[in-house]
Amino acid sequence: MILTVTPNPSLDRTYEVHALKRGEVIRAETERVDPGGKGVNVSRAVTAAGRRAVAVLPLGGAPGALVADLLDAQGIEVAPVPIAGATRSNIALVEADGTLTKINAPGPELSAAEQELLLETVREQSPDADWIACCGSLPRGLAPSWYADVVTRAHAGGARIALDTSGRALLEALRARPDVVKPNAEELAEAVGRPLATVGDAVKAAEELRRWGARTVLASLGADGQLLVDDAGTWFGTARVDAVRSNVGAGDSSLAGFLVAGGSGPEALASALAHGAAAVRLPGSVMPAPADLDPAAVSVTADVPVDRVLEEAAS
Ligand SMILES: Nc1ncnc2c1ncn2[C@@H]1O[C@H](COP(=O)(O)OP(=O)(O)OP(=O)(O)O)[C@@H](O)[C@H]1O
Ligand SMILES: [Mg+2]
């Protein structure tokens, strides 16, 4: 089983509008409501891959109840942590030309008792977990060192941790030695405080994260592919995508692909690439099933093309 932890989940409302005009009443053509959050996406991707996932989520108010119902209808197991505040609603506006504008709400503040219950729920679920994937931003009330605490507690209980977060929450967690971190190019550039122009720049940045405590760095570089750096070596891979439909959740799908394939080494990297590419080929945040994967489009090499210029340079 893979346990996912999403401290700041959301109810995602997507509206299709003709065009955005500031200061006007905009009538939406369609409205969609989805359970949201990076760990929720990882749970959906793990489940789509045919493996069991349990999602630990603080949930509150009517939006929280709706998130629980929607996940239940999708066959996603939830270990809810009831909170007094209401789960946030995030708004996405999609214009006719495909432009996406998002408004992410800050979310409720967790009380000390709720924070403790969240940690306790993770602990209760951990014995069955091959991996604990901690994903996304921290809500108000959780200290930037919160993920570091989760890593330390998980290791004490013998579980392995994969972490997909950014900024201070990522930097502070490194000293607790997470087993895997999965930054994208921007998150990696921000963590080391310098831009990444080439694959070699990304390798150096990943090595730095390892010096600061990460055991394995799986860096996703958007259309440029992915990089894996661990004790055993460095690998780079790409997966051909002929028609990009939606990169929403591609990173979350990649992390799920990496973990369901064992969470280490070049085979797991190949699985991460296959899942990322398949997610990009599918609409919206639909997660790939095994039949959607195209392993023949994936290539992985230990001969890392360090001089390759990144198409999506990160600053
Ligand atoms: N435009 C693209 N063309 C081909 N593959 C892509 C493209 N975008 C993403 N991918 C695949 O998906 C993987 C993850 O994408 P990316 O690095 O953008 O993740 P991310 O920014 O963490 O995404 P998110 O957090 O929104 O899920 C990439 O490493 C790549 O394998
Ligand atoms: Mg991401």
From TrEMBL:
SUPFAM superfamilies in the cross-refs: Ribokinase-like
InterPro entries: 1-PFruKinase, PfkB_dom, Ribokinase-like, Tagatose/fructose_Pkinase
GO biological process, one term: carbohydrate catabolic process
Molecular functions (GO terms): 1-phosphofructokinase activity; ATP binding
Ranges for domain Carbohydrate kinase PfkB: 12-290
Keyword ATP-binding: yes
Native source species: Streptomyces glaucescens
Keyword Cytoplasm found: no
Annotated Pfam families: PfkB
A cellular-component GO term for this protein: cytosol
Name of the protein in question: 1-phosphofructokinase
